[in-house]
Design a protein that fits this description.
31% of the residues lie in helices and 25% in strands. By secondary structure, the chain is α/β, with parallel strands linked by helices. Magnesium ion (MG) binds next to helix 1.
């Protein structure tokens, strides 16, 4: 097997919350014991309902927030323990694009500054000429034009701003990009074009994406690997083909059944699974999903299921896979 680009081992991110000055801290296990291997040059989708920990996973493995426990290795190196200086090359190799293109770009900076400012930090001694050339090149790659570098972000539509945010990421020649719901704030007609651009840029630059989304139709169209999260845990992961053909966790099945539209661009709504998502502060005992699971038995309430491999590369956290 090809070495994965990234290996995530027992990763945890817990937040301590204080309701008021008299109360004790309560712990939110936003990411709880996550184990994943992200193949090189793959599009690895992370799906799950709101609050399942997708964004926290992305931010923790980018080292934007400190982990509670666990390891993330990239090219065989444990990156979470590196100090600031040693991490600097990885800061460049790993980029993130956020959901909201309106808040993620500085309104008073020209596009050329927005895209170019990271270059001076990461490519010491780069000339103004080289910066200009690189900006021109990435603008064309994301489907914009050279003269756009002299405009301000507010002069662009949402889809164009997301292209600028993506250009800012790829100009640093990264290997890995977290895309956190990059198209969910966009009109449906624009989504398709931005996804196509992302797909072409991935191939052209040999990139690996961690693609966070609510939309399984987009996963089907776009991704080749998939992890399903529920209350901070990965409940199922594997290749997209395997999971779409043989979903084994009842939660994955319910997500798929509630998302039957084959065309990813017809709907942008979130999946609806029967029942409320339980509070992450007091998650259910045993298997977190048992109160909503149509197949739950006594054991599911009492015992936490182990994370185990049911076929090559297909992992699941369930006592009674379907
Ligand atoms: N800084 C924080 N402090 C405390 N709790 C947090 C913090 N960030 C996230 N959480 C909690 O962690 C859990 C996971 O949040 P996260 O934003 O990662 O979910 P998500 O899957 O990205 O959801 P969405 O689909 O709504 O974006 C939630 O219960 C959230 O309230
Ligand atoms: Mg999120």
């Amino acid at each position: 097997m090809v070495e994965p680009l990234m290996t995530i081992t027992n990763l945890k991110k817990h937040f301590a919350l204080k309701k008021n000055v008299f109360s004790k801290n309560v712990i939110v296990k936003a990411v709880d014991d996550v184990n994943l291997e992200i193949p090189r040059e793959s599009i690895f989708a992370v799906v799950g309902e709101s609050g399942s920990g997708k964004t926290t996973l992305g931010r923790t493995l980018m080292k934007l927030i400190p982990p509670t426990a666990g390891m993330v290795s990239m090219d065989g190196k444990d990156i979470l323990t590196l100090d600031k200086k040693a991490f600097l090359p990885y800061r460049r190799k790993m980029q993130i694009v956020f959901q909201d293109p309106y808040n993620s770009l500085h309104p008073r900076k020209l596009v050329k500054t927005v895209i170019g400012e990271g270059l001076k930090i990461h490519f010491k001694g780069i000339s103004e000429m080289e910066i200009r050339d690189k900006i021109r090149e990435v603008l064309l790659q994301v489907g914009l034009r050279e003269e756009h570098m002299f405009r301000y972000p507010h002069e662009f539509s949402g889809g164009q701003r997301q292209r600028i945010a993506f250009a800012r990421a790829i100009v640093l020649e990264p290997e890995f990009i977290v895309l956190d719901e990059p198209t969910s704030a966009l009109d449906v007609s624009v989504q398709a074009m931005v996804l196509k651009m992302l797909q072409e840029a991935r191939a052209q630059n040999a990139l690996t994406y961690l693609f966070i989304t609510h939309n399984l139709s987009i996963v089907d169209y776009f991704a080749n690997h998939l992890a399903v999260m529920y209350l901070g845990r990965v409940v199922e992961t594997g290749s997209k083909a395997e999971i779409f053909d043989h979903p084994a966790h009842p939660y994955t099945r319910l997500l798929m059944n509630s998302n039957p539209i084959p065309d990813p661009f017809l709907k942008r709504e979130k999946q609806v699974v029967r029942g409320e998502i339980p509070s992450p502060i007091h998650p259910p005992s045993g298997c977190h999903f048992h109160p909503r699971c149509p197949f739950a038995k006594a054991e599911c309430k009492e015992q936490e299921p182990q994370y185990r491999e049911i076929s090559s590369g297909h992992f699941i956290r369930c006592h009674f896979p379907v």
